[in-house]
Write a structure and sequence with these properties.
Elements (H helix, E strand, L loop, with lengths): L2 E8 L5 E8 L24 E8 L5 E6 L5 E8 L2 E2 L9 E7 L2 E8 L8 E11 L5 E5 L17 E4 L4
Length: 163
């Protein structure tokens, strides 16, 4: 595993396209394959790209997990790690590819998946290596052990469409 890059782009419909590039020899990573049965509640336990979204000024946030196997899951939280009912959302479009340089995963979220107005993002990834160990990446890690739910990690501010 050599590095991770993430790119963001707004869609014409008010959604968000997020592309993760995990650079490194794919043979050195455990990458879930299309059709591989994984628990949707535990996609994060394997190589997984993640996005956390919280409206500005609030404690609530939404977590998205995107597996290279094509599965995805969204979780809603009322506040730090206080999970509430899972949201009914339109499915994102997920594209996955691997080559000698690594893994590319692109997820396009419809506007209905995002809060209106200003919101804060945490961009993260879990990489399961071939030996079964894990690496945790975030645009910003709060002090201490990796904790993607910590609001200090929501480092990027975007403005979405207002109703």
């Amino acid at each position: 595993m050599r590095g991770i890059q993430v790119a963001l782009a707004a869609t014409d419909e008010g959604g968000l396209a997020v592309t993760w590039r995990l650079s490194g020899d794919p043979a050195g990573m455990r990458i879930p394959q299309a059709g591989q049965a994984l628990s949707r509640d535990r996609l994060w336990a394997h190589t997984c790209c993640e996005l956390f979204v919280g409206a500005a000024g609030g404690e609530a946030y939404r977590e998205f997990n995107f597996s290279p196997g094509g599965q995805w899951m969204a979780f809603d939280f009322a506040s730090y790690r206080q999970r509430v009912a899972d949201p009914a959302l339109p499915a994102p479009c997920i594209e996955v590819g691997t080559d000698a340089a690594g893994l590319l995963l692109k997820a396009v979220l419809p506007a209905a998946c995002l809060p209106a107005g200003e919101y804060h993002l945490a961009l993260t990834a879990v990489v399961e290596l071939a030996d079964g160990s894990h690496r945790y990446w975030a645009l910003r890690h709060p002090p201490g052990h990796p904790d993607f739910h910590h609001r200090d990690g929501f480092a990027l501010v975007l403005k979405g469409p207002t109703p």
